[in-house]
Amino acid sequence: MKGTVLSFLLLGFFAVGISVQGSDADKAQNLRNCLDGFGTCDHSLLTSAQAKHLADIQHDRNLWTCLKGYGACNKSVLTEAETKEVAEADQRRNLLACETGLGICDKSLLTSSEAEKVGKIDRQRNLFNCETGMGSCDVSLLNSSEAAEVRDLERERNRLACLTGEHLCDKSLLTASEAAEVAIIKHHLDVLACMTEEGYCDKSLLSASEAKEVEAAKRKRNALACYAGQPSCDQSQLTSEEAEQISQ
């Protein structure tokens, strides 16, 4: 009988021990949830010191979020000094966006001096876009001399695009002399394409003498291919001298 009672007492002791350990583990897990912001956080399981520390940490996290402009910022829990600090950070961030053109710029939040500076930057940025053909260009913001300069640069860019074979070329904007220059360069490139079999070759544009040069170049490439033992060799195109040299 005593042995049975002792067994029950021991079982009860271990059960209480396991329950206490389990409770401590639950509290530790709950504290981790509260710290990490993941899972369920039960504030009733925290000690007063833990709750105080947690509140301080969460307040600092929120302040950091507000100052950096990342994520959800709860400005209602900020102190008066922190609210001012965050407002100054927002002002600086907005000014940066307005000056760089990156991010969201709210010009209504700028001071008069900031608005004047940003306006100057906007005009300079617009002039740069118009001069280079990159980005958005508002011609109405240009003065007469700037507009004349931009037109000259647009014609120059178009001429160069035509000379280099870029798809942006608008031949209707070329002068007669520029169109002639472009035609000469294009024809020369076509001849080279036919001579080398690189790129598109339009043989219909070749003169009689150019066509002969192209055929001669083709025979030379074929002879070299035969000398090198390449599969592309067409022995029927070889001269008797070339065929004899290859057979030796």
Give a brief rundown of this model:
This protein is mostly helical and 248 residues long. It contains eight helices and no strands.
Secondary structure elements and their pairing?
Elements: H1 2-36, H2 48-68, H3 80-100, H4 112-132, H5 144-163, H6 176-196, H7 208-227, H8 240-247
Helix pairs in contact: 2-3, 4-5, 6-7
Explain what you see.
With 248 residues, the chain is an all-alpha fold. Among the domains are: 28-74, no CATH class; 79-139, no CATH class; 215-248, no CATH class. 67% of the residues lie in helices and 0% in strands. Helix 2 runs parallel beside helix 3, helix 4 (112-132) packs parallel to helix 5 and helix 6 runs parallel beside helix 7. The protein is elongated.
List keywords for this structure.
single chain; 248 residues; elongated; disordered N terminus
State mean pLDDT (0 to 100 scale). Answer: 85
- How many beta strands in the DSSP annotation? 0
SSE string, helix = H, strand = E?
HHHHHHHH
- Gap from first CA to last CA: 117 Å
Strand content: under 5%
Q: Find the structural class using helix and strand composition.
A: mainly alpha
- The outline comes out as elongated
